Amino acid sequence: MSDITISEGDEYTAIFHGGPFDGTTDTRTATGDAVDDEVTVYADVEGLQTAFTYKATKSRQVLDQTSVEYEYDAADSDPVDDLQDRGDRSGGFDRE
């Protein structure tokens, strides 16, 4: 992706674009000598733990601070109904 200098244990900032985490950031720790190309974040949706996948699109390093921008990947994420398509679920749980 770029010539980022990072070592295992270094922290970097993940910036999320699109999907349910749009506009949020997270401090992550490198598990090797590179930033993660793909990140999966989890959220509870209607009582289910739901996985959302984000893929790295751009990274930059300013002095000793590294940030990576991640774009939402709906195809690799768990499916979630749009709010307007969810309907009335007060009568029971209707997801399989």
TrEMBL record:
<feature type="compositionally biased region" description="Basic and acidic residues">
    <location>
        <begin position="83"/>
        <end position="96"/>
    </location>
</feature>
<protein>
    <submittedName>
        <fullName>Oligoribonuclease</fullName>
    </submittedName>
</protein>
<feature type="region of interest" description="Disordered">
    <location>
        <begin position="70"/>
        <end position="96"/>
    </location>
</feature>
<feature type="compositionally biased region" description="Acidic residues">
    <location>
        <begin position="70"/>
        <end position="82"/>
    </location>
</feature>
